[in-house]
Write a structure and sequence with these properties.
By secondary structure, the chain is an alpha+beta fold. The chain has helices spanning about 50-60, 105-115, 155-165, and strands at about 40-45, 70, 75-80, 85-90, 95-100, 120-130, 135-140. The protein has a single domain, classed as Roll (Hypothetical upf0131 protein ytfp), CATH 3.10.490.10. It comes from Aspergillus kawachii.
Length: about 170
């Protein structure tokens, strides 16, 4: 989940089915969106974006976004360097993370830019801790699976690394 991208992507529907791939277009010509057509919808985050402080920075918000603990079942996870990556059609165990309701096309574009073309949007079913389920979108690996390793992602370790690299006190949820 790298932040060094300038591309954006677009989704054809705010609620894709869990098995259908969403349409993505990262061309610069499709960066203008009609805000009146945007419908808020849930995204599932499983890595660095599941930290509300980090998500606030990506979304360029002053406040921490409201996230809800959640999981998805449709994917497996591998690592791309220090970043987790979901794989299509490799369900091994639940992937734990958070659900967040994206409020605008600007927010969605910022998320896509953060993720780069190494990831693409895909529909999923998000299950919250209370058992409720909603259709949503997550980012899945969009490059050569051979670049991925079997190592696991640990949010607590990631938060500690971020704190140490910035020389800050407490970070995270």
């Amino acid at each position: 989940m790298s932040s060094a991208a300038t591309n954006s992507q677009q989704q054809s529907t705010p609620f894709p089915s869990a098995t259908s791939e969403t349409t993505s277009d990262r061309s610069a010509s499709n960066t203008q969106h009609d805000p009146q057509l945007f419908q808020p919808h849930y995204f599932f985050f499983y890595g660095s974006l599941s930290d509300p402080s980090f998500l606030a920075k990506v979304l360029n918000r002053q406040d921490k976004p409201a996230v809800r603990p959640a999981m998805i079942m449709e994917h497996g996870m591998r690592m791309w360097g220090e970043f987790p990556a979901l794989l299509d059609g490799c369900p091994e165990k639940p992937i734990h993370g958070v659900g967040y309701k994206v409020r605008s096309q600007v927010e969605e574009d910022r998320l896509a830019e953060y993720e780069t073309d190494m990831y693409r949007k895909k529909g999923c079913v998000i299950e919250f801790r209370d058992g409720s389920k909603v259709p949503g979108v997550t980012f899945v690996w969009n490059a050569d699976p051979g670049l991925l390793k079997e190592e696991g992602f640990d949010m607590k370790d990631w938060l500690l690394e971020q704190k140490d690299s910035r020389g800050e006190g407490e970070v995270g949820v």
